[in-house]
Amino acid sequence: MDCALAAIRDMIAEGIAQRMFPGAAIYVSRGGEVLLHESLGATAYEPGVSRPVGLDDLFDLASLTKLYTTALVLRLVEKGLLALEDPVCTHVPEVVAGWTVEDLLAHRTGTTADLLGEATRHGIRPCELGQETALWSVIFGCKPVVELAPGQSHYSDVDLLLAQAVCERATGRGLASLMASEVLDPLGLGDTGFCPPERGRCVPTELDDHWRHRLVVGEVHDEMAATLGGVAGHAGLFASAADVGRFCEMWLDRGRLGIAFEPHSDHFGLGWRLCNASFFPTLERDGAVGHLGFTGTSAFLFPRSETVFVLLTNRVHPRRDAAPSRLPLLARVGEAIAGQ
C-alpha cells in the first residue's frame, strides 16, 4: 500500500502542477486506520491571498453537504420521526407531488437541475438575504421537468432542499441545530459546520464577479445556499479533510447504513452515487460509491475493503471555468486505491 499512497500523492501534486486546483487536502483510511492525511499546494494563486494549505483548513464542501443531509434523514428514521416511505406532502403540504422521502434521497423526482435559473426567473436575486420565504416558495413549487420511468433518476439540488424541509417540519427545529445534534456532535466532528466563524481557516473559492463582486472566502459558494443564509440541505457545510474522512467512515457501519449503498434508482443509493457506467465505471467492480462537490470536493467509499478516500480542493479558484477537468485524476486515484 505504501507504493500506492506515494503514487496518489504524486498524482495530486501533478494536478496542482496542471492548475486543476491550487491546493488540496487528502485523507485515506482502511478499516478505520488512517493511511494518508496530507495537504499539498496553496490556498490560492494570488501572492497576496495565497498561503500553504494546512491540515486543519476548512473547505466549502458544496454538494457533499447532501450526504450529511442524507445521514440526518436516516438518523431521524432510526429515531422513528420519519420513514423513507413517508409522502413528502405529509410533512410539507406545500408540495403537491406524490414523492416520498426515499424519492428525494435517490433523486427520483425529476425536478430541475438548474434551481438558480428557476429562482431568477421568479425574481429571486441570488446571494441577497431577506428572500428566504420567496425562495422556499419556488422550491416547494418545483414540478418535474424530466419524465422519469420507474427506477430512473435525475440529479437535483431541489431533492435535498426538500429533504431539509421534511426534517425541519418533522422536528420543529432548524437544519443547523439538527445537523449539529444528530450528526456532527455524536461523531465528534468539531471542524464541520455551516457559516464557519473562523474565516481565516477557510480556503477561498471563486472570485465572483457576477453576483457578489468579491473573492468568496468563508461563505458558501453556492448561490442558492447563500440566498438561504448559508444553511441549506444541498450545500453550505465547511469541513476539514479529517472530519470528512471520519464522517465517511461512519457510513461503513453496514449494519446501520448499508442500505444506502444498495440501488434505489439507476444511479443512486441513498444520497451516494453508485459507481457504474456513467460515474467512474472502472470502480464499479469494487462496489464503490462516491459524491462530488462543485467547488472541487470529493469523497469515495469502497465498502468491501472498508476504504475511504477524500480529496478536498478549491478547483473553482479563481473561476469555475478556468481549470482542466479533475475527473480523470479522480479516476486514476480511485483505481490506485481499489487495486490495493
Task: List how many beta strands DSSP finds.
Answer: 11
Strand order of the largest sheet: 2-1-11-10-9-8
Q: What is the average of the pLDDT values?
A: 96
Report helical residue fraction: 25-40%
- Strand content bin: 5-15%
- How many helical stretches? 12
Tell me the name of the CATH class. Answer: Alpha Beta
Count of spatially separate domains = 1
CATH architecture: 3-Layer(aba) Sandwich
Task: Return Rg in Å.
Answer: 19 Å
**What is the SS-derived class?**
alpha+beta
Termini gap: 6 Å
Order of helices and strands: HEEEHHHHHHHEEEHEHHEEEEH
Shape: globular
Summary keywords:
alpha+beta, 340 residues, single chain, three-stranded antiparallel sheet, Beta-lactamase
Short account of what is shown:
This protein is of the alpha+beta class. The chain has helices spanning 2-17, 65-78, 88-91, 101-105, 115-121, 132-140, 157-171, 175-187, 223-227, 241-251, 254-257, 327-338, and strands at 23-30, 33-41, 59-60, 193-194, 207-208, 214-215, 237-239, 273-274, 289-293, 297-302, 307-313.
Description:
The protein is α+β, with helices and mostly antiparallel strands. It has twelve helices and eleven strands. The chain has a single domain, classed as Beta-lactamase, CATH 3.40.710.10. 34% of the residues lie in helices and 14% in strands. α1 (2-17) runs antiparallel to α12 (327-338). The radius of gyration is 19 Å and the shape is globular. The N and C termini lie close together (6 Å). The mean pLDDT is 96.
